[in-house]
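Record pair follows.
FIRST:
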Amino acid sequence: MRSLKVSDVMWNHIEPIRCGTPLTRVVKALLHNHVTGLPVVDEHRHVLGFVSEQDCIHALLVSSYHCEGDPIVDDVMFREPVTVSAEMAVVDLAQNLGAGKPKVYPVVDHGKLIGVVTRSAILSELARAGCGIDAPKFAGSAS
C-alpha cells in the first residue's frame, strides 16, 4: 500500500480549463467529467488556479440576477490551488485529507499539469488495497 503513488490513481484524460473560458463552458466540463472542480492553466499547462462547482454556482446566481452575461473563469477561480506530485504516496495524501481540504487535486510535474486526483479515487484504492473491500476500480483512475 505504501508504494501506491498518486500517478497510479490520477486521471490524465480530463482537459483542464484555460484562462478566459466562459463559466457556462466550465460548468459543462465539470458535469461531463463528473468532478467537483478543475484546474485552470495557461497555454503551457502551468496551474494558475482552480475552479469548483461552488464557485460556479455563486457566480452564475449573481450574474443571472444582475443580468450581467456570462462571467469568465478568471473572475471566480481560486488563485492559490494546492497541487501534488505524481510521485507522492497515496497514503501520505490520504492522511492530509480532511474537512475544508480540496476534493480534487491538480497533479503537477515540474510545474506543469499532468492530471488530477480525486478523493473518490483515493477512497476506492484504499478500500481495495487496505481494507479488503471488493471495491471496483474507480472509473477515472489511470490503470
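SECOND:
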Amino acid sequence: MSPLYFSLNSAFMLGLMGLALNRYHLLSALLCLESMLLTLFIATAIWTLTLNSVSSSIFPMILLTFSACEASAGLAILVATSRSHGSDNLQNLNLLQC
C-alpha cells in the first residue's frame, strides 16, 4: 500500500472513529462527517487524475456538491436544535418526542 492510500485510509478511519466514539456535541459529529467526505473527495480526485479520463472527472464535483448540501443541512439542524433545546448536546435530545 502506498503512503498516499495509507494516509487517505487513515484520515477516513479517524473521521469514522470520531463519529462513532465522540457523540456528545452535534457540531463535533458534523465535523467528523465533513472530514470523511473531504477525504473521499480527495480520493476520488486522485482516482480521476490517475485514470486520465474526461468522463469520470465529474464524480469529485458531484461528491463536493453533496458535501456542501450535507453541511448546510447539518448546520440548519444545529441552529434549530440549539434554539429549541438551548444547546447542541446530543444526550439532551429525545428523538421520540415532537
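COMMENT: Helices lie at 3-21, 26-51, 59-85.
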